[in-house]
């Protein structure tokens, strides 16, 4: 494992920690899209099915279990915690699951490396992860006064994707058989979705103002 | 490709 991959994973892990910190410390999930969180849970469950039949490393297994467990925990807070659930912007979080899940499923059935149940689900998870941030980005556009923890959460997620791309470039030149065009294209699409966000994020940071995305 | 894809990333 190279340093870029590790930094990407740590950024991903940190993003989850920031989100859990926000929810637990402020007892609020204001500005957080439950749709995005549930899509991520679906991404993790479909991708990490291989926990049951393929072992890569202890590091990988621990991270997979951690991502599934934290995703479930976040959803439980947002849906069932008496205090937290009252802060959920339900009326604003209107993105339809079907618009994202259905095309990803069709694409995974058509474009995959092997037509097996687990491989199609894995491919589906790659496509779905690429677009799962969309409900969160839409919600942030609608929300005035995005708080710092929410902004940092999304920034860390974007950093994770960017670092994975650097990791792929590194692996492309150091591992002769490393060719994963399907993952790369999805990853580039996913990272591109953050471009707009990062433009306004750095601008707000430079001017020391609150992040606000133009509608 | 013919090579089995190894999913070693997260």
TrEMBL record, chain A:
One of its GO terms (biological process) is vesicle-mediated transport. Its main location: endoplasmic reticulum. PROSITE patterns: ER_LUMEN_RECEPTOR_1, ER_LUMEN_RECEPTOR_2. One of its GO terms (molecular function) is ER retention sequence binding. It is a multi-pass membrane protein. Pfam families: ER_lumen_recept. It comes from the Eukaryota. Keywords: Endoplasmic reticulum, ER-Golgi transport, Membrane, Protein transport, Receptor, Transmembrane, Transmembrane helix, Transport. It is found in: Endoplasmic reticulum membrane. The chain crosses the membrane at residues 52-75, 95-115, 121-139, 151-170, 182-201. GO terms for cellular component: endoplasmic reticulum membrane. Belongs to the ERD2 family. This is ER lumen protein-retaining receptor. It comes from Chlorella sorokiniana (Freshwater green alga).
């Amino acid at each position: 494992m190279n340093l870029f991959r590790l930094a990407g994973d740590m950024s991903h892990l940190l993003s989850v920690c920031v989100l859990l910190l926000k929810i637990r410390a402020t007892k609020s999930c204001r500005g957080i899209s439950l749709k995005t969180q549930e899509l991520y849970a679906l991404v993790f469950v479909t991708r990490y099915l291989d926990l049951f039949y393929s072992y890569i490393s202890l590091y990988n297994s621990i991270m997979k279990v951690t991502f599934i467990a934290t995703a479930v925990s976040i959803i439980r807070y947002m849906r069932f915690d008496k205090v937290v659930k009252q802060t959920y912007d339900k009326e604003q979080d209107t993105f339809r699951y079907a618009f994202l899940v259905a095309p990803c499923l069709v694409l995974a059935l058509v474009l995959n490396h092997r037509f097996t149940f687990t491989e199609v689900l894995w491919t589906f998870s790659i496509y779905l992860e690429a677009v799962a941030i969309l409900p969160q980005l839409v919600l942030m556009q609608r929300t005035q006064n995005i708080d710092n923890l929410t902004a940092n959460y999304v920034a860390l997620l974007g950093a994770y994707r960017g670092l994975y791309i650097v990791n792929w470039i590194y692996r492309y030149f150091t591992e002769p058989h490393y060719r994963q065009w399907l993952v790369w294209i999805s990853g580039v699409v996913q990272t591109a979705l953050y471009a707009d966000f990062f433009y306004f994020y750095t601008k707000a940071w430079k001017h020391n103002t609150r992040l606000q995305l133009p509608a | 490709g013919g090579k089995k894809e190894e999913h070693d990333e997260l």
